[in-house]
Amino acid sequence: MYFDAFDPLRGERLEILDKEGAVREELRPPVSDEEIKRLYVRLTVMRAADRTALHLQREGRMGTYAPVWGQEACQASAAVLREGDWLVPSYREMGAMMLRGVPLATIYRYWMGDEWGNALPEALHVLPVSIPVGSQPLHAVGIAWAQQLRKQKAAVLVYFGDGASSEGEVHEAMNFAGVFRLPVVFFCQNNHFAISVPRSRQSAARTIAQRALGYGFPGLQLYGNDLLAVWGAVNEALEEAREGKGPKLIEALTYRFGPHTTADDPTQYRSEEEVARNLPYDPLLRLRVYLKARGLWSEEEETEIVAAARAEVEQAVAEAESGIRADPSDLFDYTYETLTPCLARQKAEFLAAGRFGQGGSHG
Ligand SMILES: Cc1ncc(C[n+]2csc(CCOP(=O)(O)OP(=O)(O)O)c2C)c(N)n1
Questions:
Q1: What is the DSSP letter of 24?
Q2: Which of 7, 116, 160, 261 lies 20 to 30 A from 267 at CA?
Q3: CA pair distance 281, 302, nearest whole angstrom
Q4: What are the two backbone dihedrals, phi and then psi, of residue 250, each rounded to the nearest 5 degrees?
């Protein structure tokens, strides 16, 4: 219903729950208040996990990390997936991966430099973090094609950013998905920036969602800090994908409150006033207003939710740090199935130097 009702070419955008907590009941998706409350609690854990990752990086206990802060409602889309569906993340989907059931300690381990953090429980159908911008939609389309050929009623949800949307592979992925009517949902989190490059430099099109029309399938722009809009649209898109009705493109407008990654200094390209202007649109604030109006949230309970979230995150940090299994030679063992002669030489040299570089050159 959402994809038919809102025309991205005319700049129409789906928003169901507004900042003041008012709900457009006629658009309300089939998600119960209990489920919304459960998601709110998980999004609080997500936010605590995200903030902790930032601290760990600053303390030298984690490598470069890409924060989720501000994009939590977008990532709640992963909660709509069913068993058998697939989640294909970029590098900013810690929250989505957590909601799908990937243990936080495993995710942390990856960002701590341990490739074992990319060994995800197979039954979850989650692909590893993908760093090359725009590459993962092609993988998603490959999986969706396989699902279709095997006649499985399962869909694929793939995440990418506004910057990725102007990569060639994303075009190829969407075109292929359109031609073969594949069960895939393209979820573009438009957080307005690709590091320092603003959305206006990615495309002359009014919306990213409208590009779907050129590929022959529906596109929808929605407000990505509104959990109800995200839930409703993703649910509709996944359902229709499973029923063989082909792909959909969702452009979720959101805002990244933090840096692009821990290696970025956003004050170089956007003002603090701009960030301050966006903070009242925090997706968690909006949910709190909604839940409070229904007697499902109070300050006292918030204190408990936050304390429980912190404890869960601390436990995950301890588990991640005590379980690091990385060995630098993993780099050689797991990047290619068969080492090239040059890499084989480098590996031998590396091992001869005593693994941790006592005087050897590791090229
Ligand atoms: C192919 C490729 N080019 C460049 C980079 C460097 N890079 C990392 S993230 C990024 C910006 C991506 O922005 P966007 O797709 O909007 O996603 P966001 O990071 O905002 O979530 C760039 C250019 C990369 N990782 N891969």
A1: -
A2: 160
A3: 19
A4: -115, 130
Tens digit of each residue's pLDDT (9 = 90 or more) over 73-116 = 999 999 999 999 999 999 999 999 999 999 999 999 999 999 88
Instruction: Report whether pLDDT(359) > 60.
Output: no
Structure tokens at 93: 């989907």
260 counts as catalytic: yes
pLDDT category of residue 328 using cuts at 50, 70 and 90: confident
Point out the ligand 1 atom lying closest to the alpha carbon of residue 189. Answer: 21
> Where do the domains of the chain lie, and which CATH numbers do they carry?
2-322 (3.40.50.970), 328-363 (no CATH)
- 């809102």: which residue's tokens? 6
Lookup result for tokens 């609690």:
41
Question: What are the residues whose beta carbons fall under 8 Å from the beta carbon of 235, sequence distance 6 or more?
Answer: 29, 30, 31, 80
State the Cα–Cα distance between residues 230 and 252, nearest whole angstrom: 8
- Residue bearing the CA closest to ligand 1, atom 7: 133
Residues with CB under 6 A from ligand 1: 92, 131-133, 160-164, 191, 193-195, 260
Please give the distance, rounded to the nearest whole angstrom, from the Cα atom of residue 195 to the centre of ligand 1: 7
Please provide residue 49's backbone torsions phi and psi, each rounded to the nearest 5 degrees.
-65, -40
